[in-house]
Amino acid sequence: MEGRPVRESASELSEFALPIYANTLGNLLGGRIMHLVDLAAATAAMRHARRPVVTASVDRMTFLHPIRIGELVILKASVNRVFRTSMEVGVKVFVEDLETGEVRHTNSSYLTFVALSPGGKPCEIPPVIPETETEKRRWREAGQRRAQRLEVRRRAIEKERLEQQGGGQAL
Ligand SMILES: CC(C)(COP(=O)(O)OP(=O)(O)OC[C@H]1O[C@@H](n2cnc3c(N)ncnc32)[C@H](O)[C@@H]1OP(=O)(O)O)[C@@H](O)C(=O)NCCC(=O)NCCS
Fold first, then answer.
1. Which CATH code for domain 4-165?
2. Backbone φ and ψ of 114, nearest 5°
């Protein structure tokens, strides 16, 4: 399968932080940021795979700065690495104060998407071709993160199996 460069699917999404998504302190809700991260990442994933994709996992998210209502949220997403049917997408979130032009980096996250065949089964994706030094570094680091993610998944499946055996337990 022929590879595709990272730049062909890299995606950007911008949205005003609107009052309907404010928390009680007047900042943008964390859940809204998570939604935008998922959308930006899914756009890059679908652009790369040219197929429907589902989110298989989201790595931990750390919010470094609050986003104030009225600021512009800018999300930049790119495919870091393709494994076989899954791919890691990295998303960086920035916020721009449109009056001063100040831009701050507020958080980053890694998500894993799986491409699906028309029958709804995981299906193979073309490899991604890292070209720049940054893309090559992200490609290498994605391999280490995948090993950790698959271990978390293995433990979750095992826990589920044990709970089924025990007739289910309260959380
Ligand atoms: C994700 C999903 C398609 C995986 O299906 P599955 O039948 O378990 O398939 P597999 O075990 O063959 O895994 C498929 C790929 O996903 C990867 N994967 C599955 N779960 C993962 C996880 N939690 N983290 C990272 N990768 C994961 C596997 O490593 C494999 O990758 P590879 O082919 O590149 O090696 C399935 O669990 C699913 O549909 N989950 C729900 C997705 C969803 O509803 N998301 C929210 C809305 S989009």
1. 3.10.129.10
2. -120, 130
